[in-house]
Design goal:
Structural class: alpha+beta
Bound molecules: FE2/S2 (inorganic) cluster
Distance between the termini: 39 Å
Largest sheet: 3 strands, antiparallel
Radius of gyration: 14 Å
Strand order of the largest sheet: 1-2-3
Order of helices and strands: HEEEHHHH
Strand content: 15-25%
Number of helices: 5
Helix content: 25-40%
Length: 140
């Protein structure tokens, strides 16, 4: 029922952990299952390129796989390009997810948006198309 790519990113997730000197952090909750996702980013203040990104989750296997793929897709991208990493794009990159697991993939997209929102707020900038995620539960 899961694609090989989902199984690969679930068993061997990329970019798990924390970034101690992250300058963008976002945390979101999943209203459907109560699971939580936190994303840390190190964004270059001059070029606005996401140089590093890591995640931690209390989510299921599909949440782990989608976050692993989503972090791979935003790494090295300009913050405006990172907006194109939607949950749909992540699911396509993973060759699909079972319909009951689609809500899990939203956690990754929303956590990325929460981290970008945190960065934009702190720096007084606007990122085209970015809104504060409705399930944002970031502290401070
Ligand atoms: Fe909660 Fe998948 S069941 S994130």
């Amino acid at each position: 029922m899961y694609s090989e790519k989902v199984m690969d990113h679930f068993s061997n997730p990329r970019n798990v952990g924390e970034i101690s000197d992250a300058n963008a952090v976002g945390q979101v909750g999943n209203p459907k299952c109560g699971d939580i996702m936190k994303i840390y980013m190190k964004i270059n203040d001059d070029t606005k390129v996401i140089e590093d990104v890591k995640f931690k989750t209390f989510g299921c296997g599909a949440a782990v796989a989608t976050s692993s793929m989503a972090t791979e897709l935003v790494k090295g991208k300009h913050i405006s390009e990172a907006m194109q990493v939607t949950n749909k794009a992540v699911m396509e990159a993973l060759d699909g997810l079972p319909p009951v697991k689609v809500h899990c993939s939203l956690l990754a997209e929303e956590a990325i948006h929460a981290a970008l929102w945190d960065y934009a707020e702190k720096h007084g900038i606007k990122i085209e198309g970015l809104q504060k995620p409705k399930n944002d539960i970031s502290e401070g």
